[in-house]
Design goal:
It is built from 14 helices and 14 strands. It has 365 residues and is an alpha/beta fold. Helix 7 crosses helix 12.
């Protein structure tokens, strides 16, 4: 039986995407799993063929920059120590170590281990994404060099969307085995009721003023708006209901009751930010598998392409409020067609046995 070390790096233990790979590979491999923990007393333990390796890390927002930086260096050193001390045949990286961005890859290769790199984000843009101006340009130039070396050192690559893979391969002229593994939903839910309601799931970001105007006009037309999982002062000027945090299955059932799920956000103030454009977030897959059509911003290339291909929602341009409202109202008039398409295609959006086996075969063979 092969041994796999999965480096979750800064992801918590139950991160949906990371833990999915842990569970799936543990069915056929011995898995060691490193993750971040906020419990200083949590120790290493073994359960269900998985060796859990928590690394404690907690930053106080009031601490100065130097102290925070020293803590990050210590954290990276601890992760590196795990990589250099664990016994494994395959090193599976869910992120890189900012302090030692190439060292884990080079170490594994020097020991003739296979390296699988799971690329959640468009790293050259996503890393230190708050930078602007000349610092941003310089950072991206450096990060592209580092990213290229990481990809070349890895044996196999996993991408969150086909568009991200194509963009990276075209830019770097890569020819390397890859697999696209989006953020599939865990379960399928059959809606038992539908309300004239638009829901928003997950963390609410800023810079969505146009979306708020769209929601206000839809509320005038008889829709209600619900935030699932939290309340947010971002929507304090929009009439809404909210739920507190819900366990995954409960969240899916609540989501299944809505007529639409709104997926529109800005991670940064840059409309061409590829980490957003090529994203296929959890909330997108969860919505379809909950039987709820989606409302997706047109600049989200990966999502918009699928929504139009399968007819499972509405693609809007938030900059054109009137047309966006009209598109949603029109979709609601033809809601039965949308629901038929969602029912027809939603199995494409769930992490099922066939997708698990394809993933296992790619990693191990």
């Amino acid at each position: 039986m092969k041994k796999v070390l999965i480096v979750g790096y800064y992801h918590p233990k139950n991160d949906k995407r990371v833990f999915r790979t842990v569970e799936t590979l543990s069915k056929v491999c011995d898995v060691s799993y490193q993750y971040i923990s906020n419990n200083e007393n949590e120790g290493i333990y073994v359960e269900n063929n998985i060796k859990f390796i928590p690394i404690f890390f907690k930053i106080n927002a009031q601490e100065n920059v130097l102290k925070k930086a020293l803590k990050r260096i210590k954290f990276d050193l601890k992760v590196l120590e795990v990589i250099e001390s664990e016994d494994y045949d395959i090193l599976y990286m869910h992120h890189f170590l900012p302090i030692f961005p190439l060292k884990p890859f080079k170490f594994a290769k020097s020991k003739k281990k296979m390296v699988v790199y799971d690329i959640h984000e468009y790293h050259p843009e996503n890393f230190l994404n708050s930078l602007g101006g000349l610092a941003k340009i310089l950072k991206e130039k450096i990060m592209w060099k580092i990213f290229e070396m990481q990809l070349k050192l890895a044996d196999k690559l996993i991408f969150v969307s086909k568009e991200m893979q194509e963009d990276v391969y075209k830019k770097l002229g890569l020819k390397k085995p890859y697999l696209v593994v989006p953020n599939y939903a865990n379960i399928l839910v059959e809606p038992k009721e539908k309300r004239k309601e638009i829901s928003f799931v997950g963390k609410v970001t800023r810079n969505i003023e146009k979306e708020k105007e769209i929601l206000k006009k839809l509320i005038e037309k008889g829709f209600t708006f619900k935030i699932i999982g939290m309340d947010s002062d971002v929507f304090k000027d929009v009439p809404h209901e909210y739920t507190s945090f819900l366990p995954y299955e409960d969240m899916m059932i609540e989501l299944s009751k809505s007529a639409f799920s709104l997926i529109s956000y800005n991670t940064v103030r840059n409309e061409s930010y590829k980490n957003d454009l090529f994203a296929l977030p959890n909330k997108y897959y969860d919505s379809i598998c909950a039987g709820t059509p989606v409302i997706v911003k047109n600049s989200f290339v990966s999502m918009a392409k699928e929504v139009e291909k399968y007819g499972i929602g509405v693609v809007i341009d938030p900059n054109d409020v009137e047309e966006s409202v009209e598109r949603i109202l029109n979709a609601y008039e033809h809601y039965d067609e949308l629901m038929e398409n969602v029912r027809k295609y939603k199995r494409n959006f769930v992490w099922d046995d066939m997708k698990k086996q394809e993933f296992i075969n790619f990693v191990l063979h």
